[in-house]
Queue: 2 jobs
Job 1
Amino acid sequence: GIQVEQSPPDLILQEGANSTLRCNFSDSVNNLQWFHQNPWGQLINLFYIPSGTKQNGRLSATTVATERYSLLYISSSQTTDSGVYFCAVQFETSGSRLTFGEGTQLTVNP
Amino acid sequence: DTGVSQDPRHKITKRGQNVTFRCDPISEHNRLYWYRQTLGQGPEFLTYFQNEAQLEKSRLLSDRFSAERPKGSFSTLEIQRTEQGDSAMYLCASSLAAGHGYTFGSGTRLTVV
């Protein structure tokens, strides 16, 4: 069936380290977004990136739609980066709904 | 632009009672979405409005759930005869149009006791 798979499920880093989060999806998409859910539950939109590469400060993302994956890069991580990172996709065949992955739980230690 | 507002932030209710949540989207956004999130899971789609029209509903939205967006601005989500399985975070999001990212509200955490 239609799936969004994120890896790794958990990641623990020391402050200053870099990391790469991966999102694989099972079908063609016309919308892909990355979100950060902070420890208080607020979902923050990081990128709208159905294809190509974008950068915003220490964060960047790349989506290769033809190969059905997206990557989120976090450089020089900070403790405030901790939380859950979700990839969410809108499949071409599923109307306007976003299907979320199960997330990557990131912990950045000082 | 004050973001997406949801009210209340928390709601505790007894099983069998009705509850209603409100979402105020970003004013120029004509698309509004409701999602539900349980502990340890990603959000799940419930329903989608474009202006005042409800264009999509998930099968998760049983007959006990109803959502409205009467004037294309704020939206309400009502749950009738609540059950313990309804306990979750209810999230509202809005977007300007297709091809734009979503802005989520802080959510309403429902606990059914």
Note: The mean pLDDT of chain B is 94.
Job 2
Amino acid sequence: KQEVTQIPAALSVPEGENLVLNCSFTDSAIYNLQWFRQDPGKGLTSLLLIQSSQREQTSGRLNASLDKSSGRSTLYIAASQPGDSATYLCAVRPENYGQNFVFGPGTRLSVLP
Amino acid sequence: EAGVVQSPRYKIIEKKQPVAFWCNPISGHNTLYWYLQNLGQGPELLIRYENEEAVDDSQLPKDRFSAERLKGVDSTLKIQPAELGDSAVYLCASSIGTSGGTDTQYFGPGTRLTVL
């Protein structure tokens, strides 16, 4: 059974810092991995989708990498801003479980002005 | 383009009462998902539809939960009777539904259920 973990559970940084969020998954047989952002009381917003054949994806100040063989992904946020404060979740779509995503518990990020 | 719409946004009921949640996916999206999210955790899939067919309902507690997707568009998730442990956020998501699992999911704002 695929399991997804995220470290750290919570992170607080001053504005302007670069930071890295970590995601680990137990089964490397995946179609893709997706990073989401969730603001309090809101649904999830897709940030980046990495296919299993890709190593990384970039969007603005965000860069996500994928090391499928080691079961790891990182989300790099450059020059963090208070508006980046949210919970960040990663989710993997296993090859053996249809099209269903398996989500991690998320990392709660606070960027202090 | 409108996103995924869910209603109600909040619902407070007493235990043993019935409750229903409604979801309208993005137009043209064939796949619809219902998730349950407990506080501090990631969403867990309850049921996935491909058009009007429920293709994965293995995580749906069928003794009290039911779902339907009429004409492959809107969907309703029902709980009857509700229990205290059902208090959570119920999220609906949709995706275009391409083969190979390469498409992304778009989420609605969720319905926060409180069972007293």
Note: The longest strand of chain B covers residues 88-95.
